[in-house]
Amino acid sequence: MTTVAAYAAPAAKAPLERTTIERRPVGEFDVLIDIKFAGICHSDIHQAQEGWGEAIFPMVPGHEIAGIVSEVGPGVTKYKVGDRVGVGCFVDSCRECGNCKAGQEQYCVTGGVPTYNGIGKDGEPTYGGYSQNIVVDENYVLRIPDGLSLDVAAPLLCAGITLYSPLKRWNAGPGKKVAILGMGGLGHMGVKIAHALGAEVTVLSQSLRKQEDGLKLGADHYYATSDPKTFQELQGTFDLIVSTVSAPLDFNAYLTLLKTQGALVNVGAPEEPISLNLFSVIGGGKTLAGSMIGSIAETQEMLDFCAAHGIGSEIELIEASEVNTAYERVQSSDVRYRFVIDTATI
Questions:
Q1: What molecular functions are annotated in GO for this chain (predicted)?
Q2: How far is residue 74's CA from residue 81's CA, in Å, rounded to a whole number?
């Protein structure tokens, strides 16, 4: 076991503080990664505050991890010391269920192991990326292409794949009208990726405060959802809407913006239940769906796509001591557009 410095929440809703954690020895198929950068995802806040249910404490959040391989086990074939790598939202799965065998490990039905706030196969809690290093099985490590700087690549391991997966699945591309609902850490990646895929991109945001940014990042149109005229003007417009919002919405209103047989896909996860009139879906044969990150193979595809198109996250680089202030600012939508911790400051 190796002792490393980290930032952890000692209890639900408690401020994060500097501490130390134990990392397991490097096993036969393990990769030891010196973490260079760790993104702050809104999911980190939900879990540290037990907004999604009972959690494990102390908790070291962080599932947007970018770093350098510093040691490999004797059986490792995919990576070598010095490689640029990343780790996303999960670090293991059962490898035996139908979803795992189909290459959809993110939907493992029996033994998925989240990067933090989970229990590993050794029976010990998992700790995430707000730390100096991490040990991960090589099959759950991603290669970060040379064309991506590690700091702007880190958020791609959650925010990037969370948007890339539904955009690809619902065929965003030339001739398709796509709306990204919410212009935050997830939404700004949706704008970049949908634009690179060739879709006509519209941002639906509560206000026009970030309009200039949205247009610069690739949006063709930008509308304020606080204006009732938006819903009148855009009725029946979109083939696909991807909602990144983590607060309850009037889905009945947003479903009116879809074309016949259009889809509204949720990647944001509100803590509260929603209300839905099913006629909003039945009328027009519309789809209300969800999507959760992506598989290992699709995440690698996303990283390669982003490198090929020069896409990284828009970030604010912070020191580890600023993490609690960063959490407050995320909750106030005061970040453009992803906080990334320089882990050298832990």
A1: alcohol dehydrogenase (NADP+) activity; zinc ion binding
A2: 12
